[in-house]
Amino acid sequence: MLKIVLIAPYQNMVHDAQEVCRAYGEQIEILTGRMGQGVELARKSVLEDAGVLISRGGTFLSIANEIAIPAVEVAVTPYDVLRALQKARNMGTKFAIVGFENVIGSVREWGALLNVPVVPVDVEQTDSAKEIMAKIREVIHQEQVDCILGDASVIDIVRDMGIFGVLIESGKASIWAAIQEAKRILLARLSERETHATLRGALDQAAQGLILIQNEQVQFANRFVLDLIGRDSCVSVPIESCLPESVCEFIRAGDGTRTTDVVQVVGQLWTIERIALPGKGEYFVTLQRVEDIESLERRVRQKKSLDGHEAVYTFADLWGSSSRMQRMKHTAQQFALTDSSVLIVGETGTGKEVIAQSIHNGSSRSNAPFVAVNCAALPDQLLESELFGYEEGAFTGARRGGKAGLFELAHGGTIFLDEIGETASHVQQRLLRVLEERRVMRIGGEKVIPIDVRVIAATNKPLWSLVTQGKFRQDLFFRLDVLRINTVPLREVPEDIPVLFEGLLKQIWYQRKGVGTPPRPVPEIYRMLCAYHWPGNVRELRNMVDYLIATLTSGVVNREAVADWFYNKSLPDPDVYAEGSTREREEVQRRYVGSLEEVQRQLIVDTLFQCHGDVQRTADRLGISRTTLWRKMKQWNLG
């Protein structure tokens, strides 16, 4: 049980505090200690369940600065100073009050009202006894004071100097007020402790592991984790001493890009997530059984199958650390805070729908539907009926009872119009009316239905050129182009290719294989990847990774495997013939073409040359065994 401890810097305060406690029936612990001694008593009291400390003067300041729990000050009131002055009248006519700011701070305000010459002298906590003596000598010399008033530590110094001194004692009223304040604080701390106990109990009931890490030490682990690792507690224990090795490796691998993974713990697969907290070196880690997630996913899918309109991507799915990607991501995050229409412009495969879903999930509409439609995938008449709905009998084949359109289904949420440049003129006209009036009328209907929908459109065509050609309405263009995001082609941010490649490699590996360690890419492949022009952008890179995982026969993605993809799958770069190319692209095209055997031979020759004929280094760089390399060299007479 937490208690209140009063640390009195002088003996009379102990007697006064005891009398106050007897008079009012209070139960507090009273100790005697001044300055450093008082701090040591405070430390010991904290170990013995002190919840609030009480003291005064310099001792209070020292305790408040060095002890973590709350401390209450016994105030020095004008009445306390008047009582001390009354005692000092027999010692002279002019006085100095020496003490810390919390003791003498009010003298400047009410000193003139005392009708007694009083000089305040400030003492800092950092002042030594010598420095305090110097201040006292100075005020005696300059002000001709007869007597010094101060707290217990000052009076000890004054007496050693052979000068008259009077102790400013706190009255019983001040002690009583401090005890009452300490009681209020103690009740608040007890309530807080109760809340923390309730919260701890709730976290212990969670059906997943929750771990708080600070500087690679466990600061909190809920009961789920403790049962998993077979411990009763692991507070302030290094992670390697209590957590499984796979979990420690994941925590230490934090480089700002990998925040989730799948690990194996005690024979089971677990999803693990690391969330960086504001404090340096602080992480919140969650662990959940894969089978539990699969079970939950089945239930969610059953529920979602009733409507199917949801956004699954967030800003965390926008990978890439280049400045252009970060600026685009920051812009999208800002747009998520508004409710205006957004136009996303960019090449195919640059993640336009990922951005749209991220904006929706980052907005106030995140709990409402996200309805996506590809305007290029549907014939004009069908697109019109899908967008705006229709009434029963509106046309041949119309569903009995009619059908709500996508704008109605998106009410309260977001509608994403992909490839908006492909819409016919009559559909554009209806779209414009819906955006202007925020109302929709079904085909064949007469009732106007109010809607609250945010519109995000996307196009891979220069929409304004379509306007100038008369293929797209100018007024609709300006309705859609309120906020604009231009996506970044992959060829323009080659520094992001390694991050994207490795992220996709892990993601697709676990989607396809489920378990095991993903293949390890060798650094040499990134020059080849960065030299390619990626007409399909991230979608093409994803296809490449899928191809590599399907065709790999070892645990390494080497130059040979990548060259095989370039030979079978890569597309010609029109810029090579139109405006020239970089030296790297020319090198890739020149050296790595022909049959697979020829590509392999050229890779081995190049790598042997780079490694100065060192067979072991060459084999390591290519990701093959030394024996295989010798066999290939013998086959092609490369000895």
Automatic annotation (TrEMBL):
InterPro entries named among the record's database cross-references: AAA+_ATPase (IPR003593), AAA_lid_NorR (IPR058031), Homeodomain-like_sf (IPR009057), HTH_Fis (IPR002197), P-loop_NTPase (IPR027417), Sig_transdc_resp-reg_PrpR_N (IPR010524), Sigma_54_int (IPR002078), Sigma_54_int_dom_ATP-bd_1 (IPR025662)
Annotated protein name in UniProt: Sigma 54-interacting transcriptional regulator
Superkingdom of the organism of origin: Bacteria
Domain named Sigma-54 factor interaction: residues: 318-550
Presence of the UniProt keyword Transcription in the record: yes
Cell wall biogenesis/degradation found in the keyword field: no
Keyword annotations from UniProtKB, A to Z: ATP-binding, DNA-binding, Nucleotide-binding, Transcription, Transcription regulation
Coiled-coil regions listed: none
Pfam families with a match to the protein in the record: AAA_lid_14, HTH_8, PrpR_N, Sigma54_activat
